[in-house]
Every structure is written in structure tokens, then in C-alpha cells.
Amino acid sequence: MTVSVGTVLPAWEVPAVSAEKMKTMAALLADPNPIHWDAGVVSALGMGDRPVNQGPLNMAYVMNMLAAFSGGHENLRRFRVRFLGNVLAGDHLRATGVVTALARGVGELLAECEVLLSVEGGGPVLGGTATVALPDEATDIEEET
Question: The pTM is what?
């Protein structure tokens, strides 16, 4: 693998956000907000007719993309994001990223990345930056000096 500033991370696709998984996650997170499982409440609030996905799940899609790129979740060193919109049940999502800087850490090479989660056919719903440690087998690395 060759990594340099400008390297595009392989996208992470979520073909359809599951309303059932939202309901399960609401229970696991002890999240009492009914917008995550009750379409009637969502409608009454004027937010459409589909449940709204939890923020931690949206962050996890981006973290999965970073883990796939870097060789595992244990390689995530920093993650800073901002929520830009809602993800609704049934949405097709795409997490993307690009390497913006490379630096030597203590015994590891770190890649700073811009990350984005977008709804296909819509706009961005989460954006920010992350730092990942690159795997040892990434020996063909073009570093900036």
C-alpha cells in the first residue's frame, strides 16, 4: 500500500439504515428519545415520517471506514466530528475520507484524515477529522518533509 497526502480512503457503504437496528440501539444506549423508533412522534414533530438514526451509530460508520483503511479499530488515535444533518431510516450512506497529512509518532506513522458521512442523493450529515496509525505492512509510504 502506498500512502501519501491526497490518498483517498476506500468508501464505507451503508446501503440502507435499519429502523429495527435503531430501535435496538436505543434500548442498548438507554436512549429514551422516541424519534429513534416511533415514526408517529417524528411526524408529529414535523421531522418527516421516518425514524432518526442515533449520532453514535453515524460516527461508527466513519470509524469502520477508518478501521478498514488502517488495519483495525485499535489504530484510531483521534476522532473529532461535527453533526451536520439527520440520518433517517432507509437512507443509503457513504463514509469517505482523504489523507491530509502524514507525521511520525512514537514508533508509528500517523495519517491525519478529513472524513465525511453523506446521504446518497442528499448532503453531508457528519464531517470532521481523524488520525490513524498506519499498519506496519504499509512500507511504501511517501512522507512529506
Answer: 0.90
